[in-house]
Structures are given as structure tokens and as C-alpha cells.
Automatic annotation (TrEMBL), chains A, B, C, D:
GO molecular function, one term: single-stranded DNA binding
Protein source organism: Thermanaerothrix daxensis
Record-level GO cellular component terms: nucleoid
Pfam families: SSB
Protein name stated in the entry: Single-stranded DNA-binding protein
Segments of this protein annotated with the region Disordered: 116-141
The organism's place on the tree of life at top rank: Bacteria
PROSITE patterns assigned to the protein according to its UniProt record, in alphabetical order: SSB (PS50935)
rRNA-binding among keywords: no
InterPro entries: NA-bd_OB-fold, Primosome_PriB/ssb, ssDNA-bd
Quaternary structure, from the entry: Homotetramer.
GO BP: any one term: DNA replication
Length: 141, 141, 141, 141
DNA sequence: TTTT
DNA sequence: TTTT
């Protein structure tokens, strides 16, 4: 039973094809970006448009599904929590990254062909063999 | 009619009393921080706790309500959109800030005494006289 | 400042073209239905699918936009509150209806042509002349 | 990967203590009601208040947690999906019931004492022995 | 039937 | 920096 709510819901389009990697222990991680466009009218009647970009991260099964079904330009619904990570690079510079750790994803609009990926599926089988549970923050990217 | 969804919903506790300021044109802006605590169990049975901090910004009427009714430690529900702002300081360093621009707020738990603020209310009247509509990004903070 | 949250978010397809009517005072009301499909796997590996139907109601400007842009089969995102109305028909039978009173709507998927409706737009102008604010529950339908 | 969104989020107070029962196969189900109060101002400056009542259903682990920690009057956050069930009673009358099938629950406000329930815990152990997975709609209530 |  |  949690004591806090941290929920983000997005609808937007993928900025690029998703990328899948693996943690040292073999857990799949898929990342992609979503552009969300907001339009509004100012008091003097002008129309404004602003695009906000989000970094989305998915883990485990959902990571594989995202890699397999999503591609650049597609419209998706994504739900998850907001996470800020801070780290230092090798030169000691501090960085902050804000990500949506998604636990739900829905493809919107017309159905596209699932990516043809016999190859993909095979490689999944191999890598997936070590699927022990790991900490999410174990993975540096 | 919008074409994108960018929604954030938080429940957490205020890290400090809210601060209210005004844009050059007299529009009130209130900022505060919210801590959201997440707890989960790892596969080896350990219990983890992680606190995420959020910067919340409110405008106009809601800014005044937040200033008037919220105080450090209080539990609130906040709903809004996620906004990333990038700017350079006077020395040319680049900064990024991520904020929740809230359009709804609910006080949770027991009712606290509204802050005694005859003084506050008066000053509101004065400042509020110039209430023309301005762009949100007009305000640097 | 509200003290309760009652929020519904749906993504689904319209079951029929929306219908627009007017309250006695001239306020537009548009109603339509949305089908939301849920799929899940049972423990014995069977795949289940269930479709839930929702009655959606919109008022004012949004009612006009829904009438103008939505049509049967379209995929939409809808956000609003859940409302239960109880009433008796002329024969004394009691009825209950559950509706989503939507305050946000987004068209998903590919953009369709806006319905050609010079006629529609004209009639809107006429009817719209009496646009005083009325109680939502004033309208029996 | 789902193709529809059906999400309800509520904050309100419990109208009565939750009730826990078991399906024939031993799966716990807990039901309770939540009151959500909405206040708004009409155009002529009057203040209105309306309370909406929701039937909430929880299953499995969450059912046990709700039974154990919730009691009448408590403020909670509840998240789930909207479900309409139709059935006929023994006299052939048709009924419709609308429920929130919750999958998340958060207690809001001050912490109350967990209900003292050594007895409760014991009885849980016994009944829980048959914890096979069953269909949700298997349970008539 | 709850709460403020 | 909050809360439990």
C-alpha cells in the first residue's frame, strides 16, 4: 500500500525508433522519445503551439513489446511515473535527466504491421535466458 | 481541441511553505515543492523507499489559493502538465528545470486553519489591480 | 478548491455519430457512446476480450466541437467525471443512467476530413444566440 | 498490450466499513462505497454542492488490505476501471450495477490505528488456503 | 452512507 | 525540504 502518487499520462508521437538494451543481468530496457503538442489561444487571439519532448523508459516485458511494435512517428498512449536521475560523467560534470518510467503503453490510430523480426525474436530468446530480477537503477544509460 | 496529452497527477507532502511572486504585469505565480514517496519490495524480499521531489508552479487564482491555504508538510493532490524550461544564467551556464504547471489542487487530510492573513489579503487587492493576461513564459524564475 | 476527485479517462471508438441537442435556454449538449475493449489472459492461458460501453455527454463549446469533428468508429480520448442520474419515466418506472460528463476530448489516429457542414455552421450561429449559462441538470434527456 | 483505456481515479470518504467476502474458490473480494463531493459556482453566484456515490470492488491482496486498513469516514485515493454489470434477480427483474474495480488504493490524511484483528488475521489464513485464480465475474454479489 |  |  503506497503513500504517494506519481503518475504521468502522455499521448504523443515517437520521435525515433525505440532502442532496446540489456542490463548486465540480462533485463531488457527500451527507451524512446515522445513529442506532445499543446495548442492554446492567448488573450489577444493569437494561436500558439508548443511541443514538449519526453524521454520514456520501459523495462522487462513491456520493453520487448515496445521494441517490437513501436516505430518512429507512431502515436502512443503511455502511462508511468516521473523519475529524475542525477549523475556525474567521467569528467565530473553533473547531469540531470528526467524520464517517464512507463508501465503501460497503447498504440493509437491505425494498426501498423508488426515489424518483421524473426531475427529479433531469436536474439531475444538467447539474451533472455538470464532474467533474474534486478534493481532498475543498476542500469546506467 | 488539443492533439496531445501531457498530464501529471501527484499526491505528496509540501517540502516548504509556498512562495508567491508576481509577473511584471501583476499576475500571481506561486511555487512549492512536493515530495512523493514510493515503496516497493525487491525480489529478495527487501523493502525499498524512494522519495521523488517535484517543483510545482501555479498561476492566477490557483496561485493565490495555494499561497493562502498551503503550508509546509501538508498533503496535497496536484494535477497539471509537465514542463521543461531551459535557460542560461548571466555567466552563460545552461540550466534545465522541470516543473509541474498545476491547474488543479486539493488539500488532503484534516483541515488546517487557513493562514491568518488580513495583511496578505490587503496586499493581494493592491497588486491584483493590473490583472491583464500575460504569457506564462514571460516570467523568469 | 475542490475536496473530492472524480476523474474518468477513456480511450475507445465511437459507437455511433454524436447527437447534438439544445437545452431550453439554448445551451448545446452532445452525446455519444464509446466502446473500450479490454483483453487479458486467465491463469489457464485463455485469452479474454470484453467491451465496455460508455455514455459520454459534453456541453457548450466542446459539445459543438464533438458534433462537428466526431463520427462513428473514430478513436478518441475523453476525460471527465462520472455522473449517475436517477429519474422516473411517465409510467413511474425508476431509471438510472451513468454518464461521463466530458470536459476534454482528443481525436486519435489519422486526421479525418472535418464534416462538410456549411449548413451546420449556419444553424449553429442562429441557435447559439442565446448562450446564457444554465444548470447542467436542467436538461432532461 | 491493451487497445483501450478505461481509468477511474477517485478521492473521497468511505460511506461505511468495507465488507470482505470470498468467492466459492476462496478468492477474497472487498466492497465499499466512496462519497466524492463536488462544489461549483453558478453564473448567478450561488454555491452548489453535490455528492456522488461510488461502489468500489477490490480483489485478492488488495481486498485484504482494504478490509484490514479502511474504515468508515476515512479519506482514500482509489484507481481502477469502470465496470457495468447487468443481471436478473430471482423474480426476473433486470438490474444494472456500476462499480469501480480498483487496482490501487492509498489512505490519505493522518494514519489511523490499524484495526486490531488477531481474529481477522487467523481467519484469513484458513480461508486463504485455496487461492487458485478465478474469473472475476464468477462471483455473484 | 462519507467528509468539510 | 515532506510524510509514515
Amino acid at each position: 500500500m503506497s503513500r504517494g502518487l506519481n503518475k504521468v499520462m502522455l499521448i504523443g508521437h515517437l520521435g525515433r525508433d525505440p532502442e532496446m538494451r540489456y542490463t548486465p543481468s540480462g533485463r531488457p530496457v527500451t527507451t524512446f522519445t515522445i513529442a506532445t503538442t499543446r495548442t492554446w489561444n492567448t488573450s489577444n487571439g493569437e494561436r500558439h503551439t508548443e511541443t514538449e519532448w519526453f524521454n520514456v523508459v520501459t523495462w522487462g516485458n513491456l520493453a520487448e513489446i515496445c521494441k517490437q511494435y513501436l516505430s518512429k512517428g507512431q502515436q502512443v498512449y503511455v502511462e508511468g511515473r516521473l523519475q529524475t536521475r542525477r549523475w556525474e560523467d567521467s569528467e565530473g560534470n553533473k547531469h540531470t535527466s528526467v524520464e517517464i518510467v512507463a508501465n503501460e503503453m497503447m498504440i493509437l490510430g491505425e494498426r501498423r504491421e508488426p515489424l518483421s523480426n524473426n531475427h529479433f525474436t531469436e536474439s531475444l530468446q538467447e539474451t533472455h535466458s538470464t532474467d533474474e530480477e534486478i534493481e532498475e537503477d543498476e542500469y546506467p544509460f
